[in-house]
Prior knowledge:
Elements: E1 2-5, H1 10-21, E2 29-33, H2 40-44, E3 48-51, H3 57-63, E4 69-72, H4 81-95, E5 99-104, H5 116-129, E6 132-138, H6 146-155, E7 157-160, H7 172-185, E8 196-199, H8 207-218, E9 223-226, H9 229-238, H10 243-257, H11 267-272, H12 279-287
Parallel strand pairs: 1-2, 1-4, 2-3, 4-5, 5-6, 6-8, 7-9
Helix pairs in contact: 1-7, 4-5, 6-8, 8-12, 9-10
Amino acid sequence: MIAVTAATGHLGHLVVESLLERGVAPEQIVAAVRTPAKAADLAERGVLVREADYSRPDTLATALEGVDVVLLVSGSEVGQRVQQHANVVEAAKAAGVRHLVYTSAPQATTSALVLAPEHKATEELIAASGLTATILRNGWYTENYVGNVEQARETGVLLGSVGDGLVASASRKDYAEAAAVVLAAADADPSLEGAVYELSGDVAWDHSFLAATIGEIVGREVVYQDVTPEAHVQALLDAGLDEGTAGFVVALDGNTRDGLLSATSGELSRLIGRPTTTLAEGLRAAVGVTSAA
């Protein structure tokens, strides 16, 4: 059996959908979720739904019973993730899981990316666990810019402090398909044991291109306005963000400016057997627009 954690989340749900599309029998899929009632749509399709809370090890032990391969989708609670992930790894080991797949971050063990430290720690604890594993270092999600689309629709301005930094984003569906490919093959493909994939979109774009793409979607001119990190923080504070969140957003822009999200390895398109979703296609799908406004 294959277990997908956080299966009611954006990525996890798409992974389950992709497994079903690839012909994996629903009774061979465990949707491990914090709130089973939210997975009713999967249960109706025959998927096994089990409670699994990263912070409650007792639920994890039950959720992983009889599971051969598990996808650990990284948690969303920054600052708590290492312990939460450790709970899943320990439960997987105790349950006799044969292979673990983890969604990490680009160059997690060496990168200065502000998001990297918890992923680095998780990769290290997976390596120390003795479990065979595959690490999927997911790059940036195109869906991360949905909020920018809505803001630019109103203002005509995309504000940031990325300079000329490039982003090789891909759609969440692309990353989900890659996870499903690995999960479905984990029992039969020994090359996946210890494999680390650096996943990203096929094309790296800059924020002027992002602004132009958003403009096509919303039907008005949108320009990218680059400001200093200090001015960016102040603009975010003025918009109502708290200091911690504003600082985090600007730190990510600094990472982008430094080129930490720009790599185009081609590994994602090779895994899924097709080109990655373009920025325009991904954004249109995310905001529910099928063609230019």
